[in-house]
């Protein structure tokens, strides 16, 4: 299977079977549901998301820690997840693919710089007998700041192979903005983290097949494939625990301190350019990254529902 | 030696010793020289450049073929080289470093889309007994078109190691311009060339230490290090002849057909942005790439003369 999912991925639950009549509502659930039922459904969805089932303990712990760190630090800047339950957790018709999606928009009245955060996991049984597991967390800022976004994605297609994408994707043309490059990528020493990982013998470069994705990421993006020997069971988990975990937390810390919570001067003209660029990235993310994979993994009906919900979040 | 020369490099001759009194004139040589003397000097400089001494036959043949192809195809669109002789060919005080620089500006009255082409070689004896040889050819377009530039650079620091940079660096923010990405990088199948090279066992990724250089190149940039065994003498030359040579010529062909000679609609506002972006790239190229290496390799006086001449060419 050609894995091209290289930006936030998403999921679907056995507890909430597909319903073709459901509209792409931005509200939590259907209008007939009571408020307490809505809360219960939402709580269930959030719990399912944070379970990160199917992946190893070091992988799960890393994702849970990252999500908790973001949610604790940003606190009231984030609105509760308002996705319908059958988008928060879903599956395909045969039950061979399960997934969860969790989004929280920025609280505009609080002058939050957060556009939204988006977390997800996907589990898909492979015809070869193994399974594909993808977990991701990304955070998009709004045009009150021009600081970079955050992205982590782990794609595991076998017990001996893991792809890691970890980056602060820039929101400006770095060639035109050497100061921006200096502030967010040179001064933060992001490249030293990349170099540390690349020195591990099992770590090889990973090159996305999408040229658009390659253009989106920063020059310090960590895009690697961890390939271990079958004779060394548990080595992927060891690399996650000892190397990926601390580096991912450092990079998230840099993003929280200097991007999400740092202040930047953004003029009106620049804000318009940011809005255009951010908007294009979101459209292309759905089109390039998810549009081609989702119908294949979940069938057209589920894919349509999930991508519709994604578009709603992306254009809020 | 930390090689950071990753855009056009330049050189200095024993035949034209440094002269601190020489101004950074854009004319061919000093005002006291006769016209025929100027022509002779120029011819000598061009001949020295096209010798590509010190490198292996396959390496030299490739560079000579690329320069000839560009000059023959662009013909009268290019003005003759107008660099002073002591910039066309130069050396350091001890004679341990030799170099040559060759530039030809676009002929504006002919409505050429060429800003200038810049070729160079450098030879530098290393304290360890070996030598560093760098050859490069780059071509910059002007704002009559927004099509990508061309760049090839070969850096050989030992008989068993060669770095290759081959790219059509974009002149726009690819994230904002998916059509541009599609036209010049997807439709041209540039990535297949990259993949062919990367499949050769001796070929490893090369990552520039400069984040600015990483930002400048395209998502299909070939940036590789060819590392061969000492037990296989001549293997680097074999890889150049059998793989680098045909691929470099194909990429140059794409650039000539679709970039240098293709027509693009460029509005006035867009032209201003291109001018700003092109200008910044040239400044940063000198600053990041050459400014730090040249004084070290050639001493401050020679470095000052060569970088001054470069600045003149870059701002014509």
TrEMBL record, chains A, B:
Molecular functions per Gene Ontology = red chlorophyll catabolite reductase activity
According to the UniProt record, one GO cellular component term is: chloroplast
- GO BP: any one term: chlorophyll catabolic process
Q: Which Pfam families match?
A: RCC_reductase
Q: Which PANTHER family match?
A: RED CHLOROPHYLL CATABOLITE REDUCTASE, CHLOROPLASTIC
**Name of the featured protein:** Red chlorophyll catabolite reductase
Which species is listed as the source?
Answer: Quercus lobata (Valley oak)
Which gene codes for it?
Answer: LOC115950924
């Amino acid at each position: 299977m050609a894995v091209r999912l290289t930006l936030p991925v998403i999921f679907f639950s056995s507890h909430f079977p597909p319903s073709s009549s459901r509209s792409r509502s931005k509200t939590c659930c259907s209008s007939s549901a009571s408020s307490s039922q809505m809360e219960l459904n939402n709580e269930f969805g959030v719990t399912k998301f944070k379970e990160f089932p199917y992946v190893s303990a070091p992988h799960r712990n890393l994702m849970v820690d990252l999500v908790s760190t973001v949610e604790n630090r940003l606190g009231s800047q984030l609105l509760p997840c308002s996705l319908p339950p059958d988008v928060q957790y879903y599956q395909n018709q045969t039950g061979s693919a399960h997934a969860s999606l969790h989004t929280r928009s920025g609280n505009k009245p609080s002058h939050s710089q957060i556009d939204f955060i988006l977390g997800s996991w996907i589990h898909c049984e492979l015809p070869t007998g193994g399974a594909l597991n993808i977990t991701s967390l990304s955070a998009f800022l709004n045009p009150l700041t021009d600081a970079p976004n955050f992205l982590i994605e782990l794609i595991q297609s076998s017990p001996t192979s893991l792809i890691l994408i970890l980056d602060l994707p820039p929101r400006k043309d770095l060639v035109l903005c050497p100061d921006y490059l200096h502030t967010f990528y040179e001064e933060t020493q992001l490249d030293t983290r990349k170099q540390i990982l690349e020195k591990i013998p099992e770590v090889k470069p990973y090159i996305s097949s999408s040229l658009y994705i390659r253009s989106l990421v920063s020059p310090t993006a960590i895009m690697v494939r961890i390939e271990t020997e079958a004779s060394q069971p548990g080595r992927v988990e060891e690399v996650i625990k000892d190397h990926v975990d601390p580096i991912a937390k450092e990079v998230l810390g840099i993003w929280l301190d200097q991007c999400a919570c740092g202040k930047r001067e953004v003029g009106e003209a620049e804000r318009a350019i940011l809005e255009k660029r951010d908007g294009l990235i979101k459209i292309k993310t759905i089109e390039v990254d998810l549009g081609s994979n989702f119908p294949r993994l979940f069938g057209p009906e589920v894919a349509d529902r999930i991508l519709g919900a994604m578009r709603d979040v992306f254009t809020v």
